[in-house]
Amino acid sequence: MKKKLAAAAIVSLPLVLFFLLIWRAYRELPAAPTAGAAPPPGAPTPTNAPAKVPAQPVSAGPRTSPPGAPALAASTSAPSLQFTNFPPAVVLENVHHALRRYGKRFGGNPVGTNPEITAALAGANPGGWRFLDAEAGLRTNQAGELLDSWGTPFFFHQLSASQMEIRSAGPDGMLWTGDDLVVR
User: Fold this and answer.
1) Is 146 helix (H, G, I), strand (E, B) or coil?
2) What would the pLDDT profile of 94-144 be if each residue is shown by its tens digit?
3) Does residue 125 sit within a domain?
4) Which residues pair with 181 in a beta bridge?
């Protein structure tokens, strides 16, 4: 009986942790404004919201920007609006699942910079397999970088052949601060 309980606890612990992570992300989302209500102080309005370059879905073909579109620059200010409709923890977990599927298929993680890893996950691999799904909230920019929920490129840190740390800069858009989201 004790062995069955221990096995159940071991199996259910990752699921509980995953759902707690999702619950925390939902809890931290701002409430939707009501009609006619004034925005909170400092909230982005159409006049002060940061300009965003539209993301391209992973399956959108060539990653070229239309004529006259602004170039995507490294942001030094924090984007305050979510880039996708998915909770940040879900987007991060979807990237993690794509990497695990790649690793199972090819016996190890893709290596390189964000654009190189993104290209491998998008089909530039020996089998031409696509592991990214735009409908799962996975978006890229014109530079071919996989983006988090706020439109900031993910940071990939190879820990071993089979384990990779994926870091989202969080809502402030800066890596290595207290609001970063990390999964291994």
Assistant:
1) strand
2) 999 999 999 999 999 999 999 999 999 999 999 999 999 888 889 999 999
3) yes
4) 168
How deeply is 127 buried, as exposed, middle or buried, from its count of CB atoms within 10 A (0-12, 13-18, 19+)?
Answer: exposed
Q: Output the domain CATH number for residue 109.
A: 3.30.700
Q: Are 91 and 84 in contact (CB under 8 A)?
A: yes
Domain count, the chain: 1
SS3 state of residue 94: helix
Determine if the pTM surpasses 0.85: no
Kindly report, residue by residue over 45-88, the tens digit of the pLDDT. 444 444 444 444 444 333 333 344 444 333 333 444 455 678 89
Range of the domain at 166: 56-63+74-183
Within a domain: residue 83?
A: yes
**Residue 119 belongs to some domain of the structure:** yes
Element (H, E) at 3: helix 2-28
Under a CB-based contact definition with an 8 Å cutoff, are residues 126 and 106 in contact? yes
The answer as to whether 140 is a domain residue is yes
